[in-house]
Amino acid sequence: MIHACQVLRERGRRVAILSRGYRADATGQNDEARVIAAHLPDVPHLQQPDRFAAGMTIADRVDVFVLDDGFQHLPLARDADVVLIDATDPFGGGLCAPAGRLREPIDALGRASLVILTRADLVPREELGDSMRRIRAATAAPIATAAFRPTCERPLEDHEVLVACGIGNPRAFVATVESMGARVAATRIFRDHHAYTESDAADLAASGLPVVVTEKDAVKLEPIWKAGAPLHVVRIRFEALEGGEEIERLLDRL
């Protein structure tokens, strides 16, 4: 989403983001909102369950609304539906919540305008092909693949680290840190959108190992991080691998 907003702005579009505001804190923001603000400080980001009502308050100043996590927000008409599927865990066991991780049956991909298999660089080619065939059986939409290229302000190569995260797919983040050359000596996995406490931060800092976290975790940990092990933040950049022209074509259409 951040990548799409950046590209649209480069093309002269006035962009705004609409999101539900899931698990917002007392300031009215959640971890994802803080990450978005860091990358897109001058892009309006309205958080409200009724996204149509929110958008109407600034509609005269916006060319393109980008919905954060909006595929199931069916009451709002849209010009394009882009579905991102994590290639390291593409189908959540094949079952819908609460039995699995799917929000809808796979056939719902028939509504998609474009499907992007993310983290495609972290799975074997044969496994990726199996996922693409299963997606193709559910939709006629173009399918692209992409990677999240990681960077860190300090080199992680050959360092023993503790990986801590509270995200939807922690296994993929551990694999990302390993792909950067780090030796993962320990992990601390919290539930998605975990609200870190000072006690959590103290426990992590007392580990004696450099602590590696995602941007989503960092925006909550950094304000309460005290002396102890250093805190390293892995930031990611979207990179199209195959089907990048389909992504560009869709953004051109907007």
Total discrete domains: 3
Strand content: 15-25%
The succession of helices and strands, N to C, reads HEHEHEEEHEEHEHEHEH
Structural class: alpha/beta
Distance between the termini: 14 Å
Report the uncertain regions.
none
The coarse silhouette is: globular
Classify the helix fraction into a percent range: 25-40%
List the total number of helices.
8
Describe the strand arrangement of the main beta sheet, using strand numbers.
4-5-6-10-9-7-8
Number of strands: 10
Mean pLDDT: 93
Please give the largest β-sheet.
7 strands, mixed
Radius of gyration: 19 Å
Model description:
- The chain contains 8 helices and 10 strands.
- With 254 residues, the protein is α/β, with parallel strands linked by helices.
- It has 3 domains: 1-78; 81-151, no CATH class; 155-229, no CATH class.
- Helix 2 crosses helix 7 (215-221).
- It is globular, with a radius of gyration of 19 Å.
- The two termini are 14 Å apart.
